[in-house]
Structures are given as structure tokens and as C-alpha cells.
Design goal:
- It is a single chain.
- This protein is an all-alpha fold.
- It has eleven helices and two strands.
- Helix content is about 65%, strand content about 0%.
- It has a two-stranded antiparallel ribbon with strand order 1-2.
- It is globular.
- The protein starts with 16 loop residues before the first helix and ends in a 10-residue tail after the last helix.
Length: about 280
């Protein structure tokens, strides 16, 4: 038995539709997941250290992040108009996004093989030259959430609760709107940190004693998860006020991203009590 999100009390969507609704993104997510196997093997065999950690850690993190992003797009594709999903422009656009994501992971793995920096690399001319292209790839792959979000917003045939429909569209659109300015500033700053960082937060690697621009970047890229979850909770808990709550949740999340960005610019850590 499968359940849909069409009713306020529904719980689980039909996951079998991911491959049929967005085959390119589904295949990409599988490839990124399989790509973790040689990356973990390389990290185990390669004992070199770059910036206090294995050079393979960064491509591993990006494989996870881009894999989650790809499977999320594959999932949300069902809420687009059928005609759009089956149209040639969408298929070509999806192919371009897939190429951009594959280009990003190849670039990151190449830097790991050379035990050098992928971002802000001014010592190897090839990496300096390709950095602007990777920036364009990043904008292209992030734009997938904007295009999909607008398409979902315009889908008048959706069977979803209106508030949940709005939350999904807002989450996708905000992913692009919030990520691009933060990522743009970060890519041109030459460093993740504002101030001198000597301690980092476990797993995330965020600075515990300086400003860290990656916090706002991380939150911005996950708007497509946080806002729809807020919408789902609103539909479950207060269906009569769900639409208003979705607007509030989207505004609050945008405010959180802006706050963490300004906080980092001031040289303050995201969680100062851990410092």
C-alpha cells in the first residue's frame, strides 16, 4: 500500500515514482552514491593529509551533498505539470544540470588526487583557470531548484493540500534565491572564514571561534528540505491556518539564512557557546 501527500493526514509518498518522474536525476543520485565506494577506498589507502584532513574528504562530502540534492529534485519532480516533465526543453535542461554536477565532482576528485585545493587554488594555473567555469556549473545546478519551483508553483492540477504545494514551491525557489548571493560572496572571498579560526565543529567543520560563511551556505542549499517539512507539519497540525504558517516558515527560514550570513561577516561563530 502506498500513501500520497494529498490529504492532511497522509504520511508517506510513493517512492516508486522517483525513477519514472525524473530518470536522469535518479540515475545521477545512484552514480554519486556508487562513487563513494572508490572515494572511501582512496581515503583508506592514501595516507596524505591536506589542511589537517584526508584530501578525499572534500569530494566525499560533495558526493553526499549533491546526491541528496539530486534525489530531492527527482522526488519533487512529480509535482511539476506532466507536460513540462515530458517536454524537450526540460529534458535538455536536466541534461545540462547533470553535466554540471558531474563536472563538479570530477573537479573535486582531481584536486584530491593532486593533494591540492579545489577552491581558492592560486598555485596551480589549471585550477585557477577552471574555477570560474565551476562557478558557472554551480549556478546552473542550483538553478534546477528555481526552475522546478516555478513549475510546481504554476501547476494548477496538483492534488496536494494548497499549503503543502506552496511549501514545496517556496522551498525549491528559496534554495536558489538564498544560495546564489551567499555562494557568490563566498566564492569571491578567498576563504571560508572571517577572522582566524583555530577550532572547528565536529562533522560539519564549521569554525567555533571565527565567522564561517559555510553556515549560511549550508542552510540556504537545504531550503528545499526545511520549508516543505514545515509545510507538512503545518498541514498536519493546523490545516485551517497552514497556508499562513507556510508563509511564516519561509520568511523565518530566509531570515535565519540572512542572520547567519551577517553573523559570519562580523567574524562571529554560528554557535558561540561551543567556543
Amino acid at each position: 500500500m502506498t500513501l500520497s501527500l494529498a490529504t492532511p493526514r497522509a504520511t508517506l509518498p510513493d517512492l516508486n515514482r522517483i525513477a519514472s518522474d525524473a530518470p536522469a536525476y535518479t540515475l545521477l543520485a545512484i552514480l554519486l552514491a556508487l562513487g563513494l565506494l572508490p572515494l572511501y577506498a582512496a581515503m583508506w589507502l592514501d595516507l596524505r593529509v591536506f589542511q589537517d584532513e584526508s584530501p578525499w574528504m572534500k569530494p566525499i562530502k560533495f558526493h553526499y551533498a549533491l546526491g541528496v540534492y539530486s534525489v530531492s529534485l527527482a522526488f519533487f519532480a512529480r509535482y511539476m505539470p506532466l507536460q513540462t516533465r515530458l517536454g524537450r526543453p526540460w529534458r535538455w535542461f536536466t541534461a545540462a544540470v547533470v553535466v554540471a554536477i558531474l563536472g563538479e565532482v570530477v573537479w573535486l576528485s582531481s584536486a584530491a588526487m593532486l593533494n591540492t585545493a579545489s577552491h581558492f587554488n592560486t598555485t596551480i594555473p589549471a585550477f585557477t583557470a577552471v574555477y570560474p567555469l565551476m562557478g558557472l556549473f554551480a549556478v546552473l545546478l542550483t538553478s534546477a531548484s528555481l526552475v522546478m519551483g516555478i513549475s510546481v508553483l504554476r501547476n494548477r492540477a496538483s492534488s496536494l493540500h494548497p499549503a503543502l504545494h506552496l511549501a514545496i514551491a517556496f522551498g525549491l525557489i528559496l534554495t536558489f534565491v538564498l544560495t546564489i548571493p551567499v555562494a557568490g560572496y563566498l566564492s569571491n572571498s578567498g576563504t571560508h572564514f572571517v577572522g582566524t579560526s583555530t577550532r572547528t565543529l565536529w562533522i560539519m567543520g564549521w569554525s567555533r571561534d571565527a565567522g564561517d560563511l559555510r553556515v549560511a551556505h549550508f542552510l540556504a542549499t537545504h531550503a528545499l528540505h526545511f520549508v516543505p517539512v514545515a509545510g507538512l507539519l503545518a498541514v498536519w497540525l493546523a490545516p485551517a491556518r497552514a497556508t499562513r504558517l507556510v508563509w511564516l516558515a519561509a520568511a523565518a527560514f530566509a531570515a535565519l539564512v540572512i542572520f547567519t550570513f551577517v553573523q559570519a561577516l562580523q567574524g562571529q561563530p554560528f554557535l558561540p557557546f561551543l567556543g
